Amino acid sequence: MAECKDCFIKYLDKADTGILAKIKQLNLILQRIDNQIWQALENIKLHPQFYSLRWIMLIFAQEFEIFDVVRIWDSLLSHCNFQDFLYCLCLAILILRKEVILQQDFSDIMESLQRIQDLDVVEIISIADQLYKQYFE
């Protein structure tokens, strides 16, 4: 959890613990786990910082109502590897938006990824748990 502060320290942006490294790592994991989503986003040049910067920096605090944010944070804090589970939460959202990502254009996809409050947080956490168990344990 302490590494979250590194996202807010400008001179660490390009360091291994900085925000750019975290976004790059998320993109690499996405490429490995769901190449179809990754390729669709690459094809339209929708870079991961466009949709994941706010998710990672604010740990979804701006995306959901406080009750849902507390559920997300509780699940994050209960995992032994906070950062990897945060990536899994991000990936779960992308997976839940897969149909939009594969069928829509840049602006529709961006809108869909910036307006995720309609997603079921329990389902996001459940998918993230499955991803974590499959790829990080």
TrEMBL record:
Residues 1-80 form the Rab-GAP TBC domain. One of its GO terms (biological process) is intracellular protein transport. GO terms for molecular function: GTPase activator activity. PANTHER family: TBC1 DOMAIN FAMILY MEMBER 13, TBC1 DOMAIN FAMILY MEMBER GTPASE-ACTIVATING PROTEIN. This is TBC domain protein. It comes from Ichthyophthirius multifiliis. The lineage of its organism: Eukaryota, Sar, Alveolata, Ciliophora, Intramacronucleata.
